[in-house]
Structure formats: C-alpha cells, structure tokens
Amino acid sequence: MDRIKRLLLENVAWAKGKLQNNPEYFKSMAEAQKPDYLWIGCSDSRVDPSELTNTQPGEMFVHRNVANLVVHTDLNLLSVVQYAVEALKVDHVIICGHYNCGGVKTAMGSASLGVIDHWLRNIKDTYSFNRFEVDGIKSETDRVNRLVELNVMAQVKNLANTSIIQKAWNTRPGLPALHGWVYDINTGFCKSLVMTRSAEDLGAEHRYKFD
Ligand code: CO
C-alpha cells in the first residue's frame, strides 16, 4: 500500500475509534488545551514522548530537536518555552535525552556534515568541559551514553539560566520544576538525572533581577 495513503487511512480508523468510545471526544478536545507538562526531547523517531509516558493528547506540550538542546539563540525553542510557561502555566518541564543518541555520537566525532555541525557545536562544548571524565571511560558506547547524560544536565542548566524560567520562579516560586531525564532505547525505561525548582538549586550562573 502507498505509504502516505496508509497514514490517512490509519487516521480515519483512529478518529472513528475515538468517537466510538466517546462521541464527544473531539468536541471537548477542541475547546482548549491545559497541559501540565512541557517536553523538550530529541527528534529521534524512537523516542515518542506521549507513547513512552502513556499520556493522552492535551496533556503534554512538546518541542523536539536534534539532541534535545536548549540554545539561547533558538527563537523556536524560546517561543515554545515562553508560551508553555507564561500562557499555559505548565508545572513541569522535562528535558529528555536518550542513550545512543545519533546527535551526541556525531558531536563526539570530527566529521563535518554541513549545517548540523553548528547545531552540534553546543554538545562539542559540553564534551570539551567534561573531556577528562568522558575520555576516561573505556567503552565507546559508555562514553557516548555518559555524554548523553552530561548533555541533558547542561540543557537543564541552560533552561534555568533563561530569563523566562527565572521570571516564572520569581512570580510562582518553585514552578515550573525542571527535570532532566534520559530514556533507554534498549529497555524502554526513563531515568531521572536531575530536578530543580530554583536558580540556587542548580547553581545557575546567571541570575536576573525582576521588580
Ligand atoms: Co537523539
């Protein structure tokens, strides 16, 4: 079967199935969204946030990019974060990396692959800061996976350093909580690496002042 046709046919089957269970499903869904979570994850097709957390449409606001990075010049990400935090008032932001991440693996090498070089530069910096620890690990898989974890922790810190999050903490102390997770493609389990609710907590280097 045509691979695109398949998607549209599956969509019809899915919509009909939802209506069978609850004739008001789409009517109530269309009214508003009130998600509790913002998910920042990798674009990897195997790391599907709603699938692996068993959450339903409407529960999770999602942003994905290669290697789940929080880059301070990324207007796309910053717009998502601002909307999720200030308009939707999510209580939790989850940054979720995954072991065996192709983006992280590529960033550890020296191949030049075009535009992605610039994006992955952010991970190369984290690698440089932690070179001693990472290079001391014997197996290549473990080296990549350790950098995956360090990358998640660096991105949580990047997020804590944004004026958006610090302004939120100023007005709603402790909210949103920022979580750093790593997903294991081999087992299906997520591991929590870090959780922070304040700039002091994580040692965010920069503190904004708000009146
Ligand atoms: Co990845």
CATH superfamily caption of the largest domain: Carbonic anhydrase
Number of strands: 5
Distance between the termini: 61 Å
> Class of the largest domain, according to the CATH hierarchy?
Alpha Beta
* Helix segment tally: 10
Mean pLDDT, to the nearest integer, reads 95
Helix and strand run: HHEHEHEHHHHHEEH
Can you tell me the CATH topology of the largest domain?
Beta-carbonic Anhydrase, Chain A
| Share of β-strand residues | 15-25%
Cα radius of gyration in angstroms: 19 Å
How many domains, as an integer?
A: 2
If strands are numbered along the chain, what order do they take across the biggest sheet?
A: 2-1-3-4-5
Fraction of residues in helix:
40-55%
Shape: globular
User: What does the main sheet amount to?
Assistant: 5 strands, mixed
Sheet/helix structural class:
alpha/beta
**Weakly predicted, low-confidence segments:** none
- Ions and ligands: cobalt (II) ion
CATH architect. name of the largest domain: 3-Layer(aba) Sandwich
